Amino acid sequence: MDNSKLFVIAIGGTGMRCLESFVHLCAIGMFDGREINVLTLDTDYSNGNKSRVEGLIELYNKVKSDGANEGGANTDTFFSAKIKLYKFFTDYSNQNRRNFNLLSAPLSAGIANGDEIEKDDKDLSDLFFDPKVQEFNLEHGYRAQTHLGSLLMYHGIVEAMKGVVDNKDQALPHQKSLAEFIRALVTEPNARVFVFGSVFGGTGASSIPIIPKALKDASSLDSALTLDLDNVKFGSTLLTQYFSFNPPDKKEKDAEKIIASSDNFAINSQAALQFYQSDPTVKKYYKRFYHIGWPESMRMSHATSGKTLTGGAEQTNNCHVVELLCACAAYDFFTLNADALNNEKVEYVYRSVEEKSNAFIFTGKTFVANDSDLLANKLGVFLSFAHIVLSLNGAATKQGELGTKAFIKFLAQQNTHDYDGLTDEQTKDIDKYLKMFAYDINAKREFVPGWIYQIHSSIGSGQFVFKSSAFEEDPKRLENIDPGNIFMDEKHRWKHGVFGSNYNTLAKIISDDPTCKPKEEVQHVNTVKEKFLAHIYKGIAKAQNYDTK
Amino acid sequence: MVLLQAAARVASKTATIPSVQPDMTVVLVGVLSALVFLLLAMLVANMIKFEPGANPRDPQKRRLWFWLFGILATVLTFVLLFFVFNPDMTPTMVNSLSKVTPAQKAAFKKAYDHYMLMAGISAGITFVLYVLLGFVLSKIFKTKKIGNWF
Predict the structure, then answer these.
(1) What pTM does this model have?
(2) Is B49 in Cβ contact with A501 (below 8 Å)?
(3) A residues 290-349 lying closer than 8 A (beta carbon) to B
């Protein structure tokens, strides 16, 4: 097993949602035994998508941890990858850092003193940036002004590292976090870095081109660290426009000075692709780009009532299947043979999706060609687990029901007391994660879709790996959903006798099949919670006729 | 039916003294009854599905059926021994026969009383054996459905 650490950088709102899909891939067990260092990078520290994914990773780690033990990388189980989260944002919350003019204020001050060089700088700024671009509030991102964004993101990264190098004690937590990420990257031989972000928006599109160079230049500020870009393999997605939002009205345009409009996303994408095709720096540092797009006729709307959202805590858009495709691109990049990444120039790859009657057919193979059975099976195991906990054991469908705890109780009733030590809080963390993965029913008895339900609905009338009945939304019908009957193909449906049921089949396997018991040496599971999750994983996989190691 | 046939024989006054089942047979009926009902209880325990949720009632159902079958096995043993395997005449019937000597009548009464005692003991053996074997099996297969019995 390859034990090298993996690195993921998520940039901007779209990057955060791609990361969300990536984290769920980790939860279903796609990155067995790997340690993954994740850096979230945004200008908008309060962005709803950013908070959501950071909360998700923190919950992921809570699910893995067991008191003082934070849990490690495991094999053949849920939550098998160990994720380390590093958070960084280019801080524009301070009044004197809110726009480009304020950030470059020392230059202006210099002009007053007659400094000709600084006057040249100001002229240069004026040459490249319209006055409005220099004045808009940067707190909610670069608003599709990628020429300004690239400059400021580079500046933000280098500035943060400089802050840490100059005075570590005075450095802010997000600056230290970035420095730690760079340190981890520098110390990993032959590291692979995958960057999530869009090419049509602001922050992601601005940052993807400059990230390798910014990290290298930032690392060189610390004499003990030097990032050798020849040893680091960068990959990214070229994700073109796939959603739209309310166009800004005149009043909003006047008030915000610069505001992104989804009407321009297509032209932004085109310009970005031309840039990526010709820019020597990008072509030199990136080894592989994954082209990912979505037809305009099927674009999802992130419409909000009233005004156009520029960002902030309210920006919590639903997930889309293209984000899962991006996460799977990262899987492909991380699992490629080392020889496949020795190319001198960047390689562009893409894959098409099967279409039937104007609807897309997504199978496991659409996402991961070489390991299609692996993805469909692991996703199926986790979805079944979610339905058992949330629907049948009532964590979502009934108030005050046991959820995951019901399994512990069941196993105790069957005289297996290995997991009696798990506390209510620990099992509730698992329930909470499953609610984020699948769905929840709120206090008003309204259905709230989680990640996989959002992915499913983004496809519209198309097909997504499982039967459409696996995505039941009616709370009453969910209580009786069959977790063993989610697959299209007969092979992976659970089997039961005349008097049995699929839940009965699973319960019998979990309580009584010795081959499903966790194996510490093979699966590297140490804590009680890790063992419990490994046990459930093996049980469902067996019921699903999925041959694990 | 058996009693009617016996009554007809008594009415003819010529019938001979019926034989009484040996102790071994009486005990065997009890043992077999326990085993058959234990098998039934295992079958039913496996047929009761595991239920999801906070308060699954399937373990109680299995326990309930176990004790129900235990009582049924005991009652059935006694009923079998009393109505099927018993001598087809009671001592009162034998007393009314003219061709039977008093010594034979006294011997029959003694054998009959012993049989009835053994029938009771056999019913007891059924229950004790049923519970004992049920307990042992439940502990051996504690993670299976019959593990819910105890």
Answers:
(1) 0.87
(2) yes
(3) none
